[in-house]
Automatic annotation (TrEMBL):
It comes from Christiangramia salexigens. It comes from the Bacteria. PROSITE patterns: PROKAR_LIPOPROTEIN (PS51257). It holds the Pfam family DUF6503. This is Deoxyribose-phosphate aldolase.
């Protein structure tokens, strides 16, 4: 009997060890992307309004085009296009040359909006480095905590920033995220997703946006601070009038 008990315990420990080995940051992210839209992202045209500006992304495999169209009170229309070839700007349909000092900030701003709106798709970018920190619970639900950083080669100016995603262990939805940044004297943000909806099979959410003043705080502690009510509410972030077309 003692031998049988020992065998059972050994089998249980081995099974648990194999289960732990199977759980990786890459697999968690893969499941999150599959849940949110999967292969649809790669051939999608996505349009939306964000902070009164019009955005559109077009993807075809490895080719991409990210657009932003803005207008001012004088009727001037500025159309920025970021694609595999770089950044181009048109003002009232006429090409214009941007100063070198503005190319990176404008390109990063456009990319950032599309990145957050289409999460978690961007988490599998070539420059993304993913690490599974562990598990934690928020509001009674269990989440994988996945840390993401970006390599300097291909990560743009964001390679100094850190991102944390709380991904549901059951349905792999990204319900919370946090990040720190160094530009403009630095900062920490924590976002809670709400208003989830699907358009042509792709999941979109809006966010409650919070900040924390202690910039030395590790991101994985922000969920506990949020539940204690110690984060400062900043704003509500909404993605409006979302339209999706999946190309063949």
């Amino acid at each position: 009997m003692r031998y049988l008990f020992t065998v059972i315990i050994a089998f249980f420990l081995l099974s648990c060890g194999e289960e732990q080995q199977e759980i990786t940051a890459g697999k968690v992210v893969d499941n999150a992307i599959a849940n949110a839209g999967g292969e649809k992202y790669k051939k999608a045209e996505i349009e939306f309004i964000f902070r009164k500006h019009q955005y559109k992304s077009t993807r075809n495999g490895g080719e991409f085009k990210l657009e932003r169209i803005t207008s001012d009170t004088t009727g001037k229309i500025t159309h920025d296009i970021l694609d595999n070839e770089g950044l181009r700007r048109y003002v009232n349909d006429s090409a214009t040359t941007l100063p070198d000092s503005l190319v990176a900030p404008i390109g990063n701003s456009i990319n950032s909006v599309h990145y957050f709106v289409q999460l978690p798709f961007g988490l599998n970018a070539e420059a993304a480095n993913k690490k599974l920190i562990g598990k934690d619970s928020i509001a009674g639900k269990e989440y994988y905590e996945v840390m993401v950083t970006f390599s300097e080669d291909g990560g743009g100016t964001d390679h100094e920033d850190e991102y944390m995603y709380w991904i549901d262990t059951k349905d792999f939805q990204v319900d919370y995220l946090a990040y720190n940044f160094v530009v403009n004297k630095g900062g920490i943000r924590f976002r809670k997703a709400f208003n989830p909806r699907r358009v042509e099979g792709i999941r979109f959410v809006d966010y409650e946006n919070y900040k924390y003043s202690n910039l030395d705080t590790p991101l994985h502690k922000l969920d506990s601070l949020f539940q204690k009510g110690e984060l400062e509410y900043l704003s509500t972030i909404r993605t409006e009038d979302v339209k999706v077309k999946i190309n063949d």
